[in-house]
Design a protein that fits this description.
about 280 residues; alpha/beta; five-stranded parallel sheet; about 45% helix; globular
Length: about 280
């Protein structure tokens, strides 16, 4: 009898595409454990200035260094593998020491799997990091949920988000061109890795009919369709994600009508349509 493989569900996609909301809903499944954006774990532990929006906090509301769950994980990693949380390297592709990063991520995920005894969910979104994880966890069964949203809507949402948190302003065309390049790379990668279980989740379908989207996702990934539509965020221990997670203790997923939601002039709408067609799986 073979040894059961440890499992990881990876959420791939662009920012402002409901990846955090999806992870929240997945976390309500009794067989899944949501981790947040593990790629940013080392930055959160260091509480670097660029994370001023979230202040390096876990979704439970406490800093990662003080969170009961993450402090326990980091302590186990230190004891079992011999390096402290302060030395942890996770932020691919920006980490220079890829050899140490590979060891650290392997130790981290093995510890997380042993501690939770559940299928892990990583919502880091980044393609380079996903590719690195595939090589780091060769014995794991990794499934990918590719989340996509209308490029123009992403650009408008990013602009609104940047203005709210006083980030550097970017033009709609700049954001859409970055979306096009990033998603073109994602689609090419997914085609090359057709042996990996994949599911494409369209933002528009997810927010208008979440039940149908979650049923399709469950069937594709072999999950039980046991999801709740609301949850107490302070019971989670996710890293990063939408800063608004600290504005309320509760998250609720409710259908949202998308009719007449697409804004912008004809040229922008046409460009958005063309880019999305170019990046179809």
């Amino acid at each position: 009898m073979g040894v059961l493989k440890k499992k990881l569900i990876y959420i791939l996609g662009s920012q402002r595409s409901a990846t955090t909301a999806l992870e929240y809903i997945l976390s309500t499944n009794p067989n899944l454990f949501a981790l947040g954006e593990v790629r940013l774990l080392d930055d959160f532990i260091a509480n670097i200035p660029k994370l001023k929006v979230s202040l390096g906090r876990c979704t439970c509301g406490i800093s990662l260094n003080e969170c009961t769950f993450w402090s326990k994980i980091l302590n186990r990693v230190s004891v079992d593998f011999g390096f402290s949380g302060g030395d942890l390297l996770t932020n691919v592709p920006f980490v220079e020491d890829k050899v140490s990063c590979k060891k650290h991520l392997h130790a981290l995920f093995e510890t997380l799997s042993d501690e939770t005894n559940q299928v892990l969910v990583d919502s880091s979104k980044n393609l380079d990091y996903l590719d690195f994880l595939i090589g780091t966890l060769p014995d794991w069964e990794i499934s990918v949920i590719y989340v996509t949203r209308e490029p123009l809507e992403v650009a408008l949402s990013v602009q609104k988000w940047h203005k709210r948190f006083d980030f550097k302003k970017q033009s709609i065309y700049e954001i859409m061109s970055k979306w096009a390049y990033a998603n073109w790379k994602m689609v090419r990668w997914l085609r090359r890795h057709s042996n990996i279980t994949q599911f494409e989740l369209r933002y528009e379908s997810f927010v208008t009919d979440p039940d149908a989207s979650l049923l399709g996702l469950s069937n594709a990934l072999g999950l039980s369709n046991q999801f709740q539509r609301s949850l107490n965020l302070r019971e989670l221990h996710t890293v990063s994600g939408t800063p608004s997670r600290f504005n309320s203790d509760e998250f609720r997923l409710s259908p949202v009508p998308m009719k007449n939601q697409i804004k912008g002039n004809f040229l922008l709408r046409f460009l958005s349509w063309a880019i999305r067609r170019l990046c179809r799986k």
